[in-house]
Design goal:
There is one protein chain. The protein has 270 residues and is an all-alpha fold. Helices cover 67% and strands 0% of the residues. Helix 5 packs antiparallel against helix 6.
Length: 270
C-alpha cells in the first residue's frame, strides 16, 4: 500500500509560537540596529568635537591629505549611522530619527563639513574635468559651476533690508526658498561626484526645511536644531569656499554680493 507523502500539518499552536518567535526576533534586531545608530551617531559627534578643538587651537592648515584623515573617519561613522537607520525603523519618522542622532554643534565654523570649503576649488575643478570627458555633459558642468550663483542669490535675499522692513513674511519666504535651493544644489553636486568616484564637496548631504514642521511632535526640539545646524553649515561652507573670489567667478557677481559672501551670516530666521 502506497504511503501518504503529503507534508505533515502544522498545528495552529505551533504557528502561533513561530509567529511570536519571529516578532520577538524582529524586535531584537530593531533594538540592536537602534543601538548601532546611537553608537555611530556618538562616534560621528566625537570626531566632530575633537576636530573642532584642534582647529580652534591650531593655525589654519590647508593640507588636504591631512584633512581627509578626519573627513574619512567622520564619513565612515556617518554612513554606518545612516545604514543602520533602515533596520531601526527610523527612515519614516523624522522626529524620532533626529532625536536619536542628536546632531548639532554650537560652532559650525569648526566642523569638518565647513572646513572642506577650503578645498572647493580643487574638488569642483576635478569634477568638471571628469565631466568634460563624458558626452552631453554640458548641463551637468553648468550645474556644478553654479554653486556660487545660488549662494549669491541667497545672500541677496538675506540682505534685502528694504523688503524685510516692508514685508517680513515675503522676505522670510525668499530667504527660505533661496537657502533650500542652495542646499539642494550642494547635495546634487555631491551625488554627481560620488557617482564618478570622486571626492564630493562635502562628505555628507544636508537637510532642507521645505517640509511641514509639526512642533508638537518635535519633543526636545531635535529636528529644529538639526535643520538649523545643517542650514548654518551650508552658509558657512559657502563663506569658506568663496572667501577668495577671483577671475571669472568674481566677474559674475555684483560688488555688493561679492563682498557679502565674506560675511555670510544670516540677518534673521529663514
Amino acid at each position: 500500500m502506497e504511503q501518504d507523502k503529503s507534508p505533515e500539518k502544522i498545528s495552529e499552536k505551533t504557528l502561533e509560537n513561530l509567529g511570536s518567535i519571529a516578532i520577538e526576533a524582529k524586535k531584537i534586531l530593531k533594538a540592536e540596529a537602534l543601538d548601532d545608530v546611537k553608537f555611530f551617531a556618538k562616534e560621528y559627534r566625537n570626531i566632530e568635537n575633537n576636530f573642532s578643538q584642534i582647529i580652534s587651537k591650531k593655525a589654519l592648515w590647508k593640507n588636504e591629505t591631512e584633512f581627509k584623515i578626519w573627513e574619512n573617519d567622520a564619513a565612515e561613522a556617518y554612513e554606518k549611522m545612516k545604514s543602520a537607520e533602515d533596520d531601526a525603523g527610523l527612515l519614516s519618522n523624522r522626529f524620532e530619527r533626529d532625536r536619536v542622532e542628536n546632531i548639532s554643534q554650537p560652532k559650525v565654523e569648526n566642523t569638518i563639513e565647513v572646513y572642506s570649503g577650503h578645498f572647493y576649488e580643487t574638488r569642483s575643478e576635478a569634477l568638471v574635468e571628469k565631466l568634460k570627458n563624458e558626452p552631453n555633459s554640458e548641463e551637468t558642468i553648468e550645474k556644478v559651476g553654479s554653486l556660487h550663483e545660488y549662494a549669491a542669490k541667497h545672500v541677496e535675499a538675506v540682505r534685502n533690508r528694504e523688503l524685510r522692513a516692508t514685508d517680513v513674511e515675503t522676505w522670510n519666504r525668499n530667504c527660505r526658498k533661496t537657502h533650500n535651493e542652495l542646499i539642494n544644489l550642494l547635495n546634487d553636486i555631491n551625488w554627481i561626484a560620488k557617482e564618478r568616484n570622486l571626492t564630493p564637496l562635502t562628505f555628507r548631504n544636508f537637510e532642507t526645511n521645505d517640509y511641514y514642521y509639526d512642533r508638537g511632535k518635535d519633543i526636545g526640539g531635535y529636528t529644529d536644531a538639526r535643520a538649523e545646524y545643517d542650514r548654518a553649515i551650508v552658509e558657512k561652507y559657502c563663506e569658506t569656499a568663496f572667501s577668495n573670489l577671483g577671475g571669472a567667478r568674481e566677474e559674475t557677481l555684483t560688488p555688493e554680493v561679492a563682498t557679502s559672501i565674506l560675511d555670510f551670516h544670516r540677518l534673521g530666521e529663514d
